[in-house]
TrEMBL record:
The keyword Secreted does not apply. One of its GO terms (cellular component) is membrane. It is found in: Membrane. The chain crosses the membrane at residues 12-32, 39-56, 68-87, 99-116. This is Hemolysin III family protein. InterPro entries: AdipoR/HlyIII-related (IPR004254). Its main location: membrane. One of its GO terms (molecular function) is metal ion binding. It comes from Geomesophilobacter sediminis. It comes from the Bacteria. It is a multi-pass membrane protein. Zn(2+) binds at residues 94, 98. Keywords: Membrane, Metal-binding, Transmembrane, Transmembrane helix, Zinc. The keyword Ribosomal protein does not apply.
Length: 121
């Protein structure tokens, strides 16, 4: 959101509110989750991982290709991880899912660290 160029209207604010809103809903569902809601959490995680698509056009004008690639790779990692999260019969499925979540988070971290933060300093 910090990389979105000025003049993008309310898009940065909308993205900020949506990301934090979905994150809050996910946390609340996790606290009060039942087995029936087991699929809802991963769907929220996928939605959060792919929020970059909403701002792709202005981001592609503001970020280097490598930064966009890292954002895209993070979304792919989150999405692939959900497959393992839901695969109950696979040994260590939860650990594998966490690996993909960490990979997606690392991709997003480095996209911010290398391609957003230097523009703000």
């Amino acid at each position: 959101m910090a990389s979105l160029p000025p003049g993008e209207g309310s898009l940065p604010s909308w993205l900020f509110g949506t990301v934090w809103g979905l994150g809050t809903v996910g946390a609340i569902l996790k606290i009060y989750s039942t087995h029936r809601l087991r699929v809802v959490g991963p769907l929220l995680y996928i939605a959060l991982g792919w929020m970059v698509v909403i701002a792709w056009k202005p981001l592609s004008a503001a970020l280097a290709t490598n930064g966009l690639s890292l954002l895209f790779a993070g979304g792919v990692a989150y999405t692939l991880g959900v497959i393992f999260y839901l695969w109950d019969r696979l040994p260590f499925n939860h650990a594998i899912w966490h690996f993909f979540v960490l990979t997606g988070s690392a991709c997003h971290f480095f996209a911010i660290f290398y391609y957003v933060t230097p523009r703000l300093i």
